[in-house]
Each structure stands twice: as C-alpha cells, then as structure tokens.
Design a protein that fits this description.
With 103 residues, the chain is an all-beta fold. It has one domain (2-98). 0% of the residues lie in helices and 59% in strands. The protein has no helices and 9 strands. The strands form 2 sheets. Strands 1, 2, 5, 6 and 8 form a 5-stranded antiparallel beta sheet that branches.
Amino acid sequence: MWFTAERGNYAGRLAGSPLGASPGPLAPESFVVTGYAVSQSENKAELTIAYTYAGTAGAPIWLAEEVLREGQVLPGFSASAAAIETAGSGKVNLLLTYQGIGL
C-alpha cells in the first residue's frame, strides 16, 4: 500500500514479509487492506491498518512503513513494525517518527 505524506514531498509504502524473509511486497491476493487511518502530530504519524490476511505466506508476517523520495528510502525516519500472527482479519498500529536528520 502506498500513501503520501501530508507535510512534505514524500511517498510512503507499507512493506510486509514473512518471518526471516527479506522485506518486500506480499502477493496481492494474500494480504488485503480493508481500511486505514492516519493521525499526525509534530514529528510522529500513527497508521492504523485494517486487513484480511489469507495466510498463504506463512506466519508471522511483519508490516512496517518506509518513507521514500524519488523511489529511495529516506534516512532520518524511525518506524515500528507489527507482526500478524495468524490468518484472518484484524487491525495493526504502526508508528513513524521523523528524527530531524538526513534530509
């Protein structure tokens, strides 16, 4: 899932991977975002994702945010990761913090 930053010329993406695998996109039929909400204050943004996971990539899978400019991941951001332990539907919260460096 791609999204734009409200306070800058940035795009972000939600990247997911099975445990032990390199980060990357999950197969579209495996993981479906059914809704999301973003709240932002100062240098932090919280992304809440509602999802349905088919379980085809195994478990757990990890979700995290990346902030990009011109296709490159930007330094200076810290992102939390969330684990999805089982197939089914649910919600996860991810926190993205800008540390004010590297831009």
